Amino acid sequence: MTPFGSRARAIARACAVPLLLVAIALIVAGCFPAAQQPGGSAAPTPSASVQVALHPAPPGADPVSLLAFLFTPIFQAMFILLVGVYHVLNEAGVPGAIGFAIIALTLAVRSVLIPLFRKQLVSQRRMQMLQPEMGEIRRRFKGDGMKIRLAQQELMKERGVSAASGCLPVLLQLPLLFIIYSVIQNGLTNFNPTAMLTVAGVQLVPLDCPTTPPPGAVVDPCIDTNVPWLFGLDVSLPETTLVIIGFGLSLLAVASALMQLVQSRMMLAPPDPTNDDPNLRIQRQMMLFLPLISVFYGGILPAGLFIYWIVATLFSIIQQYLIVGWGGMFPLFGWTPGFARDHSPRFPVAMPPPPDPSKRPAPSASVVPTKRATSADKTIRPRERGRQGRRGRRR
């Protein structure tokens, strides 16, 4: 990865986390307005207080309503899959069926996205393999940033490596988090979400829910959101295990941060003592710091969202292990276990061979270094020698 790409990726990850809550607020505000209670406050409310049936978002003229309308089919597909698994397990008498349903939904989503994330891993691994040649270019054109960028771009184009191919999965993760959040926050807490289970007038999942609650009565959600095998956790509400100075600490958020930390270290190249690139050190520091930010959202976001996050991260760790191996995971505090030494991944990434020199295109004129003497001859006007008059100089 180029220094510019490293900084861009670090900045993108740093900006993505604060934008998460902002985008969630925008989507939730316009996604399902019929499911919201008029005059509700920003404080967490019990799931039993929702008294309006859930319906698909209609198209609107404002951007938020239009975005909600466009996201509704994806929401509906995920919600149907989630409730379908829940219904089957609940009918079979499985305790905490909604927890297993969230896990099944996560595995289904990540299985569909395997080719996309594999392309990202291959692209990042090839960028790491190009680092020695990138370093040689930086040494050759030291002090000339324009020539460095142009030469590195030509090298990447020559090897068939694209830095942009790794951006799409990163951008795709945010909309998926928004949709999963809406599914858990709005779908699982509603007393009658059957409209979201109906396609072309056919209810795909036979969920028995009350159609009209009595006036003023408190009706429980149609879906049981408690998970006994997670100590009676309610996946529709934030999970707070410990409160420290007004800050809620969630064990699920801590586990999610640790999993993201492992995933981030595995994506780094193995440490090289001879490489003193400051950008690489900054990238490693950001990889250690950014996963810890999710701990601060543990007392705000629903616990079901962290179940999705943990399972998705575990899925990514397994996928990375098969393609790039342990990466920069070890040494950990100076310790490298025996199973990580000389480990070869199951599906290693191969760098495309360089093209035949005879077929290689001519380099750009801006990249080819020019001799200073030749450049000076073109820019300095020749001086005429001879006796110059002094007229006009005296006043």
Strand order of the largest sheet: 1-2
How far apart are the first and last residues' alpha carbons, in Å? 66 Å
Taken as a percent bin, the fraction of beta residues is under 5%
- Strand count: 6
Number of domains: 1
Describe the structure.
With 395 residues, this protein is mainly alpha-helical. The protein has one domain (8-37, 49-207, 219-333, 341-352). Helix content is 49%, strand content 4%. The protein has helices at residues 3-31, 63-91, 97-112, 114-129, 131-140, 145-159, 167-187, 251-267, 278-289, 303-323, 372-379; strands spanning 198-199, 202-203, 226-227, 233-234, 242-244, 247-249. The chain has a two-stranded antiparallel sheet. Strands 3-4 form a two-stranded antiparallel sheet. Strands 5-6 form a two-stranded antiparallel sheet. The chain is elongated, with a radius of gyration of 29 Å. The termini are far apart. Mean pLDDT is 77; it is low at 1-50 and 365-377.
Please sum up the structure shown.
This protein is mainly alpha-helical. It contains 11 helices and 6 strands.
